[in-house]
Design goal:
globular; 4-stranded antiparallel β-sheet; 14 strands
């Protein structure tokens, strides 16, 4: 409709439209007549009085602020993500990292300490309210238990009266002693991978010994629930499990109390490369049904790129100086590029231990390239109504799908747009059926790198 102002008319059925102005923070249902009359009003400020009055009342005649931000100067992160190990106690069929296939690597305490010292010093210098320590990547962090517990104890001691917020991703196969420690120490919570119905979960998430892991994960969730510990659940959906997604979501919400439930189609990476595609119309239909069931429990499902309520030019921390350390101590911006052997390591690794600030040497050319990957730089995303919510989707995935050339979209774009449309229509309905005004209702999750996602 007026893409220069990021105001979009999205066709619905029967000549009805959904008008979405993300930067103005407004969406409303419109007739063909209104959609035809609005462009003149928006560009010339002229038109029928009633249309001008409506546009003014909706806030469309003002110039909204830009959501674009861009990091500059030396990186000064106040959060570190430690990829403790590539070892894992599960052998998930869709593991993006193929964890357990290659000889495992383990981080040392020296590597962890250097990263922790750096972010605590930065947080102090900048007056940040807390320093962050996160555990993630490439394998199961809790398998390197000694370092997980000792590094966090070190961080808290080193931080003194500065708060340390600690969070982890995990597969949920923990001992009781580990669960006790997590409840007592991970004040930022945990993101657990659990695929829903036990038979669905066990098909794709066996232990290294080939047994189903669902009893262990459900025990962990029960203990987390009893302790009121904040955890999120992430479901990964393979093509053949799509029809069971609604039942899986209902099973989780009937039995457990996660703060958030995230659903993503399995990516064709790692052990899942070449497997049937789950980014399909069937996925969208199953997601819609699963969302309807989740709504009965007061939940809105999360799909990482459909984020109405969040306006940003960054899909994840990759463009915002994400500071993640590989087991060898090198600096990566991406949760999926957890190892120097990753196909796109040259894109995502931008530092190593060395004589620079805080004990690191940064490759500023590599970092500037990452900072320049914001959605405003992607011509393919210009004119997409989901642009400021999706922010270009996962950069690692687009490299895997498109190669290193210009981004040319993916099947996920269609899923994202359909789910953004659903979110807008449901917000309009909840606001009385005519118009929805954005109250900025949510920020992305830190554990997943600001909306980041991966097969885990
Ligand atoms: S074109 Fe695709 S990647 Fe770009 S903003 Fe739209 S949905 Fe996201
Ligand atoms: S969302 Fe994609 S690009 Fe961002 S950290 Fe995760 S895997 Fe990497």
């Amino acid at each position: 409709m007026n893409e220069a102002q990021d105001i979009f008319a999205i066709p619905l059925e029967d000549e009805a439209y959904l008008v979405y102005a993300p930067l103005h923070g407004v969406a409303f249902a419109a007739t063909k007549g209104l959609v035809g009359a609005l462009p003149g009003v928006l560009t010339e400020g002229e038109g029928e009085d009633s249309v001008v009055a409506f546009a003014r009342e909706a806030g469309l005649l003002r110039t909204p602020p830009s959501p674009v931000t861009h990091r500059r100067g030396d990186p000064s992160p106040t959060e570190v993500t430690l990829f403790l190990t590539t070892a894992c106690n599960l052998r998930c069929t869709y593991c993006y990292a193929s964890a357990g296939d290659a000889p495992a690597t383990f981080m040392t305490m020296d590597v962890a300490k250097r990263g922790i010292d750096f972010v605590i010093d930065n947080a102090r210098r900048e007056g940040a309210p807390f320093a962050g320590v996160n555990y993630h990547g490439g394998g199961e962090p809790s398998v390197h238990w000694k370092l997980m517990t000792e590094s966090l104890a070190y961080a808290r001691e080193r931080a003194g009266d500065l708060e340390v917020i600690a969070a982890s991703a995990g597969n949920g196969v923990f001992t009781d002693r580990q669960i006790d420690w997590m409840i007592a120490n991970l004040n930022g919570g945990m993101s657990l991978s659990f695929d829903g119905l036990p038979e669905v979960h066990d098909k794709h998430r066996p232990t290294a010994q080939g047994k189903g892991s669902s009893p262990r994960v459900m025990r962990t969730m029960r203990r987390f629930t009893e302790a009121d510990f904040p955890y999120a659940v992430r479901l990964t959906v393979t093509a053949e499990q799509i029809p069971l997604l609604p039942d899986s979501v209902e099973f989780i919400l009937s039995n457990f109390t996660p703060k958030r439930v995230q659903v993503e189609p399995a990516y064709q990476l790692g052990r899942h490369e070449g497997k049937p595609d789950a980014e399909t119309e069937d996925f969208i239909a199953a997601y819609r049904e699963a969302q309807a069931r989740a709504a009965r429990f007061g939940h809105e499902l999360i799909y990482s790129a459909a984020r109405v309520g969040t306006l940003t030019n960054h899909f994840c921390g990759v463009t915002q100086d994400n500071f993640c350390l590989s087991p060898s101590g090198n600096v990566s911006a991406c949760f999926e590029a957890f190892s120097e052997d990753n196909e796109f390591a040259d894109v995502f690794f931008y530092g190593s231990s060395g004589p620079g600030p805080g004990g690191y040497t940064f490759d500023m050319d590599a970092l500037e390239k990452l900072r320049g990957l914001g959605v405003e730089q992607r011509s393919f995303c210009d004119g997409c109504f989901a642009k400021w919510n999706c922010a270009g989707d996962c950069y690692h995935k687009s490299l895997a799908a498109n190669g290193r050339g210009e981004f040319a979209g993916s099947q996920r774009c269609h899923i994202t747009r359909e789910l953004v449309k659903d979110q807008l229509l449901s917000r309009i309905a909840d606001s009385g059926g005519l118009i929805w005004r954005d109250g900025r209702d949510g920020e992305p999750c830190a554990v997943h790198g600001d909306g980041g996602d991966r097969n885990e």
